Fold these 2 entries.
Entry 1:
Amino acid sequence: MKPLYVMMHRWAATPFVWGESDCCLCLADWYNHVHGKDPAAHLRGQYCDALSCQRLCGWFSDPVTVIENCLETVGGRPLIDAPALGDVGVILIRSKDDDRPLPAGAIWLGDCWGCKGPTGATTINAQATRSLAVWGIGYEG
């Protein structure tokens, strides 16, 4: 099985825990798997819920900057217009309980976005969401 799909299976089997295995830190896990460096080491274990995440890094008000700042800790990655397999992005999704779109970190799977959420891992049709930013990761899957 390709590493990208192994990662998605890991996301599906891992509980969603703020500050440990949330959508942002799962992207950092993916980057670490591909490049051997953790871009979010400074965030791990520093928050425990959505409110403390927002207070610490501003995820809900400026998620693009959060990912950009994480990537800067490992030398940065280019913003791109169209994702390739394994690239990461910030997308907007609608939760079941709230009609407001919320930011989520996601990986491009080739024909849809893969995302870590409270119920495991999910895929989201590109036409059903809007991407705020996409970074080229350099995955050679």
Note: Strands lie at 88-94, 101-108, 112-117, 120-125, 130-135.
Entry 2:
Amino acid sequence: MKRFVFTLAVTALFAAAGVNAQVYQWKDENGKTIYSDKPPIGAPGQPQKIHAPSPAASSATQKTLADRDLEFRKRQKESQESAEKAQKEQSASAEKQQYCDNTRRRLQALESGERISMHDDKGERYYMDDAQREKEITKARQDIGSNCR
């Protein structure tokens, strides 16, 4: 176990030494740009330092996992709320359409001239007279005019 840890430490040491290596850049006789870890033979190259991105810089530009999770949950909640709102609007529209259809059928039955029976407070059946029929027709037309456009 100690040998493994020692070998791992030595390997990490050599790997860290390679991070600070210089890179040379030059153009060959064809005008092609060449990058190498060794300087060109016979001509001075331009040494360049390789900069590894620091963890602080990358975390500043990238959002943390907690921030991304929070944003995801917020978008998910907004999506759910908009779906619920759309469903409520759709059900309200369907109820309104059903109410309008029922009112139109009622108006059609009232205008047809057929005898229409109703029930009084005692539960006994009676037939509408002409005055009640006209009153119900006027009410049905007003309901259709105000709610069913």
Note: The first strand starts at residue 22 and ends at 27.
